[in-house]
Amino acid sequence: MERAASICDVxxxxxxxxxxxxxxxxxxxxxxxxxxxxxxxxxxxxTPEVVETLHLCLTRGLHWQAxxxxxxxxxxxxxxxxxxxxxxSDHNRLQLDEVACEALLAIGGPQVVRGLVDLCxxxxxxxxxxxxxxxxxxxxxxxxxxxxPLLATLWEYLPDLAVxxxxxxxxxxxxxxxxxxxxxxxxxxxxTHLRRAALKALHALPxxxxxxxxxxxxxxxxxxxSQRDPDPDTARLATALLARTEDGRAxxxxxxxxxxxQGGPDCPPHAVAAVCAHIAAEPGLFAVADHGEHHALLAHLxxxxxxxxxxxxxxxxxAASVGASAAGALVxxxxxxxxxxxxxxxxxxxxxxxxxxxxxxxxxxxxxVARRRGAARVLGLAGRTDAAPVLHAALxxxxxxxxxxxxxxxxxxxLRHAAAxxxxxxxxxxxxxxxxxxxxxxxxxxxxxxxxxxxxxxxCARSPHEAVRRRAVVALGAFPVPxxxxxxxxxxxxxxxxxxxxxxxRALREIGGPALPVLVRLAAGADGLPEDVGHRLVEAxxxxxxxxxxxALLGLATxxxxxSDGTTYATSGECRLSRSTPARExxxxxxxxxxSARDLTPLTALLGPNSWFGAHEPAVQALLRIxxxxxxxxxxxxxxxxxxxxxxxxxxxxxxAAARGIRFxx
Length: 666
Known about the structure:
The chain is mainly alpha-helical. Helix content is about 60%, strand content about 0%. Among the domains are: about 225-350; about 480-560 and about 575-590. This is HEAT repeat domain-containing protein.
């Protein structure tokens, strides 16, 4: 037996291109060295000596590494062995099905396809994981030869494995599977998962061949049941398939007619909403010469449907189909408090100018609060600066309902109407005013960002009213000055409210450069932060490209996994976030994006003894992308010093060897 003192000996052989030495090392008494010598041979030139050695490794208990290396070398003569290994692994305790499948996929070719197809008849009685591997391999190869055997035994897979088979048929995308998929989608005997999988597989078939041939009943009829399925995703998928044909679209209009009729066919609201949503997404597909009835039907559903989801979807369909002509129906729908915001958004997005009477709708004292709120929202979103005086007047009028005044504040903020800033500041700090109005007022101050209003926003940030306080913290992000950043820092201190801490970090990120010193200080005391705030803090620091932010990220990434007092960091639910999970990991991955040929410090630090092990591979890959001699030396030093060798180490050595022109074979 060849003696190899350590993994380092094997790595040196690799870096010297010593194929013969590695072949001998596969028989080493040092099992770990033998394992990685076998793995490294997968990068060598495919010679009879290498192939023979790898076959011999299969008799030495090095199955995984030998099979992987044979696959990397594309040794077609190994296909029968791999197929036999896969077949035997169904009942073999070595469980080599995964590596055998991966190897077969890597080699590919007709022989592999035929071998996998031959295994189809064994699938119904096969072990679960083994069956999944074979089906996934057939799906990856998109082998049309597998369609007939899979269809022939499909019913034997029910109920446990049918979903996996259906997914495989969908991945293959052969129209011959369409009839069986339609039956499964239609049959009430299929469970929810199977019906949904069948419809997804039908979507994967070539769209140009739709509808697929089916004698009786028509394809569209087989989809009627699925379109009314209790599962919303299933109904949506069936709706999209029906929309492909004229007969299918006619049925979808019948679904809407039934929903509009008193005592019409029972259809779940989500199925009706799915039809409307598809019309909104593809209005041209549903266009007809005589569209009056269809538009009237959508308007009726917008006005009278019982479910808000249907009314909301009908509004979208009507706006997409009719455009500006839908304004009348949409204006009336502003009274609907459940869908008013959606309707206002649709009106603001209409291609033609927004109705001039919107200001009248807003100021009309007899109008409902919902309609006036919706009108204000449209005016703001549509950029109607001419409406600012009217909105300003309503905001200042104490007799105006609070909801209308709140919407006016939002609209003035959206219009960036600076003249409203003093009034908004006064309302935001007036504790006699309703809390909702104050919250909307301080939010509008954040949209304006007028420096003179900062004291008002700071005061609101300390308000006992939760909504006012939260929106004020968000608004501080519009003030890139020390007073704002210091205030935000207080909200990220240990023991702070988690929601406010998240909002404060987001605001600090929006402020940009002036907030960097605060972010750096927060990173130094990351232990004790509210849950998930550490991850957001990392994102904020990563947005700054300079050395100061890099240093802060490095401090987070290399922080020890335990505190100095020996106790472990906090776990989820303790209102405190560890630097080790997930902030430590997030900081490590952020540093991977910062290394350059001029500054390798962040990447090399991630390879140090105190770094998170999950950062090692991305850091090495980043060094390999830099590709300088210095970067390669760092990679080699890390690999030679590692205590645990993984397959990606092999790839790293291969990359360095290739860059240095080291030939790995004759």
